[in-house]
Amino acid sequence: MIQFDKKSLRKEVRTRKKQFSTEELIKESCPLIQQVLNHPRLQSAKTVLLYNSLPDEVYTHGLIKQLHNEGKTVLLPVVISDTEMELRLYRNPNSFETSSYGILEPIGEAFTDFSSIEFALIPGMAFDKERNRLGRGKGYYDRFLPLLTKAYKVGICFPFQFLPNIPTEETDIKVDECIY
Ligand code: ADP
Ligand code: MG
């Protein structure tokens, strides 16, 4: 039943996203990214996990470049199988290839020093006030986040993706804070 509830919430969020153009979503992303940049946990972090946004997600391409230029170690997720993802270093805007999901993923070896990651920015289909996260339905972050033992985990979404109550299972991993 819970998978059905999650599925209908994802459908609702997809409907809400369709009301906005890609340009509008990029504009809506600005104040959210500013909150990330102002966050003390980000400012003090040397090594950060970000994500490369798809057109329907909070736009992170500028953030990635900025934090890299500031000298932070920037990591991005790469999907490597139906259930697993790994992390790779962001080096420059040219060392990317497009994954099967259409996500730009860095080329290079896997980064495995998970305990060095101090800040993680996590995308989601939805978040709620209990800091629960709804993903796209593959559980990638639920499997991966427990490895990040030191990271302060910040979920990020547009205001219309912040929902009153997300159904959860034991395997769902909460974030520490949500920006919306
Ligand atoms: P998402 O988090 O992407 O919204 P779900 O929470 O619905 O996706 O999880 C997708 C599937 O992955 C579910 O069948 C869930 O039970 C499974 N899953 C999630 N985390 C784990 C885990 N740590 N180990 C095994 N299966 C998991
Ligand atoms: Mg989940």
From TrEMBL:
Manganese recorded as keyword: no
Keywords attached to this entry: ATP-binding, Ligase, Magnesium, Metal-binding, Nucleotide-binding
Enzyme class: ligase
Enzyme Commission code: 6.3.3.2
GO molecular function, one term: 5-formyltetrahydrofolate cyclo-ligase activity
Catalytic activity: (6S)-5-formyl-5,6,7,8-tetrahydrofolate + ATP = (6R)-5,10-methenyltetrahydrofolate + ADP + phosphate
Keyword field contains Repeat: no
Cofactor requirements of the protein: Mg(2+)
Family the UniProt entry places it in: Belongs to the 5-formyltetrahydrofolate cyclo-ligase family.
Name under which the protein is recorded: 5-formyltetrahydrofolate cyclo-ligase
Gene source species: Prevotella melaninogenica
Species lineage: Bacteria, Pseudomonadati, Bacteroidota, Bacteroidia, Bacteroidales
